[in-house]
Amino acid sequence: MCENNKWDSSQIRNYDLDLQPIPRLHYKDPKVDELMKTNQPVLLSGSNIAKPAVDKWTLEYLEENLGKCGHTVYVSKTHKFKYFNREKILSKANPKGVEFTSETKSVEMKVSDFMKKLKEWKQGDDRLYLQQSLNSSVGSAIVKDFMGFEWRYVTEKKIRHGWGELSANLLFIAMEGNCTPCHYDEQENLFAQIKGFKRCILFPPDQFECLYPHPVYHPHDRQSMVDFDEPDYIKFPKFKNVKGFETVVGPGDVLYIPIYWWHHIESLLADGPTVTVNFWYKGGPSCLEYPLKDDQKVSIMRNVEKMLLEVLQDPKEVGPLLRTILLGRYVDVQSFENIQ
Ligand code: OGA
Ligand code: FE
């Protein structure tokens, strides 16, 4: 049960996971910087970071002011919206791609049509999730609200912690119960909750082995292959040992999700639609200081994987080649056989 009785445990899905709470601090607490400096997540409370949005962005207001252009809306038969990268799918223009059909489709939709479907939705219908970068096509009222964000604070964090440029502010409008399955991004994220509640489960970069990401060439690159609703412990045995953190964000809260941290995010059940705006910052220039940090190791693994795929030209050759490099040389044969 949450401390202020705004929601209860029947509104969150039940997963068999070992999770600790993410620290919740007043946004001006000096400990915030200690956590950010060491790439630890923290929930910032009491801020004005996205205050105009928290105060004003009802669904009616968004419908009125988001603009008449089409917005990107994902459609799914289940509660899961697993992101995929179109550029990695096989097509005439992309002969090196992968044969793939996604559970989730993306469509362009006017915000008025999206809101209509949201109001008429009933259990069993396809679910919708609007995910659209805030850009120059939004109406002037939204632009004004956006300019009223507490930019001094977020920019101070960007500079102090050496993050790269702000690359996007993504707007998320979800149906209750929608879930973004576990993945990591190559960006720093200030995740500002505007309306409704989202449960966020985070895992540090060193949990890579327990979370089994798809290979980098796959359209689901950066996404865990483990289905949290029905984990296949035969295929993914180390998922049993995964250790993470969790919190529930509500209106006005801002969650810092450090770069390369895994996150699984779900809108609470039976609580109506949710609205979030994130601030995505590119990673800062990383210098290789030793000992290497866990996120740097993930980045190195990605680069090695990409390089092998590039030169070998066939994903099937990557495993045998790595095995030949390792076996009896970097790992002893016995321990290698044990991990199979
Ligand atoms: C993100 C993210 C998903 C969601 O902000 O990086 O994965 O459902 N968000 O809010
Ligand atoms: Fe993400």
Automatic annotation (TrEMBL):
Stretches assigned to the JmjC domain: 126-296
GO biological process: negative regulation of Notch signaling pathway
InterPro entries: Cupin_8 (IPR041667), FIH-1_dom_II (IPR027452), JmjC_dom (IPR003347), RmlC-like_jellyroll (IPR014710)
Annotated SMART domains: JmjC (SM00558)
Molecular function as annotated in GO: [protein]-asparagine 3-dioxygenase activity; ankyrin repeat binding; peptidyl-histidine dioxygenase activity
Highest taxon listed in the record's lineage: Eukaryota
One term under GO cellular component: nucleus
Protein name (database record): JmjC domain-containing protein
Species, as recorded: Acanthoscelides obtectus (Bean weevil)
